[in-house]
Amino acid sequence: MAPKRPKGAGAFPKAVESPAPARPDPDALYAALDLGTNSCRMLIAQPKGSGFHVVDSFSKSVQLGSGLERTGRLSRASMARTVQALRICQQKLKRNRVRRMRLIATEACRRAKNSREFIRQVKRETGLTLDIIQPEEEARLAVISCAPLVSTKTEQLLVVDIGGGSTELVWIDISSVPRRDRPAAIMRLHNGFHTADSPFPAAKVVDWISVPLGVATLRDQFHDVEDDSARFALMSWFFEENLADFAPYKDVQAREGFQIVGTSGTVTTVAASHLGLKRYDRTKVDGLRMTSDQIDKVIRGYLELGPHGRRRDPRIGDDRQALIMSGSAILQALLRCWPTDRLSVADRGLREGLLYAQMSADGVLEDGPF
User: Fold this and answer.
1) What is the pLDDT of residue 19?
2) Rounded alpha-carbon distances, angstroms, from residue 101 to 78, 211, 332, 363
3) Across-strand partners of 262?
4) What is the distance between the alpha carbons of residues 9 and 244, in angstroms, rounded to a whole number?
5) What's the whole-number mean pLDDT along residues 83-91?
6) Are 129 and 276 members of one domain?
7) 20-43 tens-digit pLDDT
């Protein structure tokens, strides 16, 4: 007699249901897009506590400023590359139904003779409206993006944003702000560097400068730097000459209570090299502190590698091998002026600053530690 078939045998096993992540409420989403001289980057995020949670992102090297130093104009090829990247951003914004957004363009569009024509082309072909911001707002956004990395022990703060077409430096005195309030005082600068009297302890902006030299524009002037340490030194000194009008440049700064926060691909790449990472890991890089000596050692290693060695380095690669030397020249100039044991690496920038500024203005961020 054949055995009876167990009841239910052969039926598909019942799936164990796991709840899918809830789709974010479009009303709670914010977007920030930063179109620079070299890259196009975007974040879509929702407020979470005193910070935010990233829902979607985009980043691509578009080299918008390619040839700008020579012609003073954005080329057809660079504009076409950029519009193609912006179409992807537009699709992401539409898919997430984002309504609160700020889309900015920086140095390349500030300098190009045909930037207005390009902005109209972007609007016509993607529906996106780009806002060309001035250097002060760019510096302000870089500062507030780095607020969570400011130590409560810091009294004098230098925030450096090494971009593709320009470099922003902001010197802030927070010695009169109670220690636990210092990061929050930095955040409040989203209202402007010269704000009216505030009921809160205020961070004082001693001076700020936007140097019209970034990794792309400096590279274009010193394109023959390969493994020539003398030529590299000349590039670094050339950048330093542009700091002569920056008030704190002339001051000798004690290391105690002084902190530099650096935000750029250069700083994060140097940090990854210092750590010996095989693959980039933001969690290990963002917030890392390095000394001037540690950074100099990495930069000397880049020179010794030469262009071919840098291309093969997994932390640099072909696209960045020339840019990393111009960025390193800028970084070395800064550390020559202000040696420090507390350079904090910020894997964050204008996009994060844009998000913080929008969310702060809408009052959707909670008070408390970042």
Assistant:
1) 45
2) 24, 28, 36, 15
3) 160, 345
4) 83
5) 98
6) no
7) 445 666 678 999 999 999 999 999
In angstroms, the CA 143 to CA 187 distance is 8
Residue listed under structure tokens 């972007």: 122
Q: Could you list the residue range(s) of the whole structural domain that residue 56 is in? A: 26-133
User: 237, 262 in Cβ contact below 8 A?
Assistant: no
DSSP state of 278: S
Contacts (Cβ under 8 Å, ≥6 apart) of 86: 35, 40, 122, 126, 128
CATH of the domain at 76: 3.30.420.40
Which of 133, 163, 178 is at the close of a domain? 133
**What confidence category does residue 55 fall into, taking pLDDT thresholds of 50, 70 and 90?**
very high
Region at 99 (left for phi over 0; alpha for psi -120 to 50; beta for the rest): alpha
Site of tokens 């957004």: 101
Q: pLDDT at residue 277 above 50?
A: yes
pLDDT of residue 321: 82
CB of 40 within 8 A of CB of 59? yes
Q: Both 50 and 159 in a single domain?
A: no
Burial of 184 (0-12, 13-18, 19+ CB in 10 A): buried
Q: Are residues 159 and 256 in the same domain?
A: yes
Identify whether residues 224 and 322 lie together within a single domain.
yes
Identify the three-state secondary structure at position 158: strand
Angstrom distances, CA of residue 28 to CA of 54, 145, 332, 348: 12, 20, 42, 21
Q: Is the pLDDT assigned to residue 17 strictly greater than 60?
A: no
Cβ neighbours of 203 (radius 10 Å): 27
22 versus 5: the higher-pLDDT residue is 22
Q: Are residues 153 and 229 in the same domain?
A: yes
229: enclosing H helix or E strand: helix 229-241
Confidence at residue 329, expressed as pLDDT on a 0 to 100 scale: 96
Quick check: 259 and 342 in contact, CB under 8 A? yes
Across the range 209-229, mean pLDDT stands at: 86
Would you say residue 189 lies in a domain?
Answer: yes
pLDDT at 109: 96
Residue 360 in domain: no
